[in-house]
Amino acid sequence: MDDPSFATLAFDTAIASLEDSKAEDIIPIDLRGRSALGDYMIITSGRSHRHVSAVADYLLRALRDIGYRDIKVEGQEGGDWVLVDTGDIIVHIFHPEMREFYNLEKIWVDPDKDGVPSGRIH
Length: 122
What we know:
The protein has 4 helices and 5 strands, in the order αββαβββαα. By secondary structure, the protein is of the alpha+beta class. The protein has a single domain (4-108), classed as Beta Polymerase, domain 2 (2-Layer Sandwich). The protein has a 5-stranded mixed sheet with strand order 1-2-5-4-3. Helix 1 runs antiparallel to helix 2. The N and C termini lie far apart (28 Å).
């Protein structure tokens, strides 16, 4: 939805949803000016396959509640790694072992970047 204020609302909604569903080690990444993929990326984990899927379900409901309709979701059946892409934000929800293996934080987190904190929320 190409509205910067809506992207910020979506980001805030996603963070709140992840916190409410007890997602772990939440890392927000500001992509504005760095990538055409979207405005924000969030990387987080669930404690188990079931928790990963539940976190994704809760997130999808929250995003739909604020108006998103065309959300792309991959991996929800397996619970190893769920990708939620609204166009504005991309959320990676990992099972801990998968997160460690792919280590997306190493690719995307820039410790010197201003804006959205690139540190852990939990």
